[in-house]
Design a protein that fits this description.
A hairpin with a 2-residue loop joins β8 and β9 (100-109). The protein is of the alpha/beta class and 370 residues long. The two termini are 47 Å apart. It has a six-stranded antiparallel sheet with strand order 1-9-8-4-3-2, with no helix packed on it. It is built from eleven helices and 14 strands. It folds into two domains: 3-109, Rieske [2Fe-2S] iron-sulphur domain (Rieske Iron-sulfur Protein, 3-layer Sandwich); 122-352, Flavodoxin domain (Rossmann fold, 3-Layer(aba) Sandwich), CATH 3.40.50.360. It binds FE2/S2 (inorganic) cluster. FE2/S2 (inorganic) cluster binds next to loops.
Length: 370
């Protein structure tokens, strides 16, 4: 077996690890319990650098490195994943000669990515769209929050329910309402901030937890819906906090455009219902439109219904009765649904294969070109 000297032993003190160059690739070196071991540095999941991973002790005191991107674990001495997993990272032989750490040019055992019997994310991974050239699936997302045991009337949610009823009764749409407060989902954990490739599709969190509540949003929004109508209250001049919690998790959709030039949202329209006792309808609409534009949605004309009673209206108990009686609201809900449905019917005529995302190259970033 051929060995290549990589770094002096003194550069890898006991209880440390790091990745170093080995020809055209990199090797993660570990120095624990007096033993030096070497694994391929690129995690077999999505390529996270194991040299920047975390050391964990599992299985009767065995040491593992946990990938810094999503936590896949590999035994330092064997490269094997823990428990019953068959996955394995490539393991290299190591010897120390003349004070240098020398690593074999070929692995002692190759990396192995096991086929798992069932893949609960297969429909998302394979983008098994349920939309067709003639489908009209309208998804309502209510982002208002409330105590499940003490429900209260919600202006935004009532208008959303009316919109879905109109879509079904007047246009023959299939409809579905998702109330975000009923989904148990994790906050975005910011894997993107470590590396753009660490924010994956399906979402890294979904991959780790098939029961995460956002999976219902991904399936309904990406695979099922032709149109989305999102309803939010105005909270201190912004959309609801549940909306933002969801929006951060939708980074996985937008990031596919960034890293793979892959547009997941095609031929879909979105419109909004924005209501509040006090104001800033336009500010909220601006934020929602800007975000959903970046996901690939198309907007019908006049794509938001806004309603508020102004800064001085502190008599919140009167909001719902007034909203409920408003002829403007009733008329606007019909217009919103009509415009949204008609746009969906038109954009389905477009050739989606020709869709282009206006994506800058990384070299065009101002901060990098200075
Ligand atoms: S766990 Fe290593 S890249 Fe995902």
């Amino acid at each position: 077996m051929q060995y290549t000297p990589l770094i002096p032993l003194s550069d890898l003190p006991e209880n440390t690890h790091k990745s170093v160059k080995h020809g055209t690739r990199k090797i993660a070196l570990f120095h624990y319990e007096g033993i030096i071991s070497a694994l391929d540095h690129a995690c077999i999941h999505k390529g996270g650098d194991l040299g920047e991973g975390f050391i964990q002790i599992l299985d009767a005191g065995e040491r593992y490195v946990a990938c810094p991107w999503h936590g896949w674990q590999y035994n330092l001495k064997t490269g094997q994943a823990p428990h019953d997993f068959k996955d394995r990272q490539a393991l290299y032989d190591v010897m120390v000669q003349d004070g240098m750490i020398c690593v074999s040019d070929k692995p002692l055992s190759d990396a192995f990515r096991a086929e798992h019997e069932s893949d609960p994310m297969a429909d998302l991974r394979n983008l098994e769209y349920q939309t067709t050239a003639t489908s009209l699936n309208v998804l309502g997302i209510s982002t208002t929050n409330m105590n499940r045991d003490l429900p209260r009337p919600s202006t935004s949610e009532s208008a959303l329910q009316s919109a879905l009823d109109i879509a079904a009764s007047q246009f023959g749409a299939q409809t579905k309402m998702i109330k975000l407060r009923e989904l148990n989902f994790r906050h975005c954990e910011g894997y993107y901030s470590r590396h753009e490739e660490a924010c994956t599709w399906p979402c890294s969190i979904s991959d780790m937890d098939a029961n995460d509540g956002m999976n219902e949003i991904y399936r309904s929004m990406v695979l099922w819906a032709d149109a989305v109508i999102l309803a939010t209250p105005i909270r201190w001049g912004n959309a609801s906090s549940l909306y933002y919690k969801m929006a951060e998790r939708l980074n996985t959709i937008q990031n596919q455009i960034t890293i793979h030039d892959k547009v997941l949202i095609k031929h879909k329209a979105v419109s909004f219902i924005i209501t509040g006792g006090q104001d800033n309808v336009q500010g909220v609409a601006g934020q929602l439109n800007s975000f959903f534009a970046d996901l690939g949605f198309t907007f019908p004309p006049f794509n938001y219904l806004g309603w508020s009673r102004g800064w001085l209206a502190e008599d919140m108990e009167n909001n719902y009765p007034r909203f409920f009686k408003s002829r403007y609201v009733k008329r606007s809900v019909v217009d919103l649904v009509t415009n949204t449905v008609k746009l969906v019917q038109q954009i389905k005529q477009m050739d989606a294969s020709q869709l282009q995302a206006p994506k800058p190259e990384i070299t065009e970033a101002e901060s990098l070109s200075e």
